[in-house]
């Protein structure tokens, strides 16, 4: 059977693969779930082959569906590259870019990024959003944003996702936050064994700092005692400054906050840090305006790394 596929067909399959349910695709495309379901049924009927299958309460693509989704990414990227080529010919860098990042990355990158864009690309509008999820959850956000700033711990590698580009920004070491009156606060560095028996504050399970604390516990040979759980770094800093607990804190994000409030001491005997990366779809990266924002984001990250 000779079946003609159009862009709406390819886009539907890609969105189902990225979002995992008819309801999520309907919300993203401002349609009813019934309309999306009917489009999917019609496409599968024309092709004569299933494109999705049940995965718990959601959907996942079959091999045939994944092949179509990969084709959709190729088509979308080619269209974006053609538009970017034309804009380069016109000398035009303009438009809106939606960037999502976790809280401390927003504080670290966005003020400088806004200043850079104002100087080099004044016709670019940057819309920013806070998304603080576990390190495995960032890849799911690329369907909704042009750029997603994510982090992962030293002990993990990016999960292979062929339709997501991973652009390294920087590696941020984790230091030990100590109250100023703590016996270890004056040390040039501390080892995991020095920290046995201390109370800690840490993010929930699955966040890079929490994974590093587990590695510290393993190296020290004793479990750590976590007395507070939060993703809010300012709260972690305040708990440390008041002498209520210790914390592993990201160096670049915390350094300016520590002076006169708490000590930030490097950790030796254990490689503890987090990798900060930009995640995006290949077709989004091909857009001229997104590439411009990504370029300035990488420049800001390089300056932060060099300056600290």
Automatic annotation (TrEMBL):
<dbReference type="Pfam" id="PF03466">
    <property type="entry name" value="LysR_substrate"/>
</dbReference>
<dbReference type="InterPro" id="IPR036388">
    <property type="entry name" value="WH-like_DNA-bd_sf"/>
</dbReference>
<dbReference type="InterPro" id="IPR005119">
    <property type="entry name" value="LysR_subst-bd"/>
</dbReference>
<feature type="domain" description="HTH lysR-type">
    <location>
        <begin position="1"/>
        <end position="62"/>
    </location>
</feature>
<dbReference type="InterPro" id="IPR036390">
    <property type="entry name" value="WH_DNA-bd_sf"/>
</dbReference>
<keyword id="KW-0804">Transcription</keyword>
<keyword id="KW-0805">Transcription regulation</keyword>
<dbReference type="InterPro" id="IPR000847">
    <property type="entry name" value="LysR_HTH_N"/>
</dbReference>
<comment type="similarity">
    <text>Belongs to the LysR transcriptional regulatory family.</text>
</comment>
<protein>
    <submittedName>
        <fullName>LysR family transcriptional regulator</fullName>
    </submittedName>
</protein>
<keyword id="KW-0238">DNA-binding</keyword>
<dbReference type="Pfam" id="PF00126">
    <property type="entry name" value="HTH_1"/>
</dbReference>
